[in-house]
Amino acid sequence: MEHKKTYNAKQLKTPHGSLIVEGPITSDKLAGYEFHEDLIAFRPPAQQHQALVGIAELPEGRIIIARHRNTIIGYATFLYPDPLERWSEGKMDNLIELGAIEVIPQFRGCAVGKNLLIVSMMDDAMEDYLTITTEYYWHWDLKGTKLNVWEYRKIMEKMMNAGGLEWYATDDPEICSHPANCLMARMGKRIDTETIQKFDRLRFMNRFMY
């Protein structure tokens, strides 16, 4: 499958200043921007910046960023699922995962996450993909937001809906380990029946196990 990437951008006005939401961004451009020190959800900022540059270099890798002037304050990543996850077992070259989405505390509540997903889906090439995301409550900033797990889940679901992702049932043990965890997916307009059937088999792999 050919991995086309067509750059899109939009301006987002917030109480803290105007942002540019753009992508998929090249690794060179990404390396040239500052990376905000509050982007610490997954690893230390400098390491995460390098990790994103690495993802942008992958044929299927897509990084969408939100920046305030020259500083990245939020991002979303799309790439093939981790080889250790069940979602990679179907070896589907048209299934990609929204792996991470992060926005610094200062700009939360400004619809940054929502706009990262809107810009992500502006690229027509996304209609060739089945896009999934797995949401686990232990990745959520419950302490920083002072939200309970269900309030946070509601916000996450609303944000994902902005990118066309919807809730899907699954018997994946990690997702089933807590009722707030969930699988969400978006079927691109050019996804065929065979892909949908493969995805259904991945969603329910334990159906016949007793």
Helix-strand blueprint:
Layout: E1 8-14, E2 17-23, H1 27-32, E3 34-35, H2 45-57, E4 62-68, E5 71-79, E6 95-103, H3 112-120, E7 130-135, H4 142-145, H5 149-162, E8 166-168, H6 173-176, E9 182-187, H7 193-203
Parallel strand pairs: 3-5, 6-7
Antiparallel strand pairs: 1-2, 2-4, 4-5, 5-6, 7-9, 8-9
Structure description:
A hairpin with a 2-residue loop joins β4 (62-68) and β5. The chain is globular. α3 (112-120) runs parallel beside α5 (149-162). Strands 1, 2, 3, 4, 5, 6, 7, 8 and 9 form a 9-stranded mixed beta sheet that branches. The protein is built from 7 helices and 9 strands. It has one domain: Aminopeptidase (3-Layer(aba) Sandwich). The chain is of the alpha+beta class and 210 residues long.
How far apart, in Å, are the first and last alpha carbons?
37 Å
Count helical runs. 7
Shape: globular
Roughly what fraction of the amino acids lie in strands? Answer: 25-35%
Element-by-element helix/strand order: EEHEHEEEHEHHEHEH
Average per-residue pLDDT, rounded, comes to 95
Oligomer: single chain
The helix/strand class is alpha+beta
Name of the level-1 CATH class: Alpha Beta
Task: Name the features.
210 residues, alpha+beta, Aminopeptidase, nine-stranded mixed beta sheet, 7 helices, 29% helix
Short description, anyone?
With 210 residues, the chain is an alpha+beta fold.
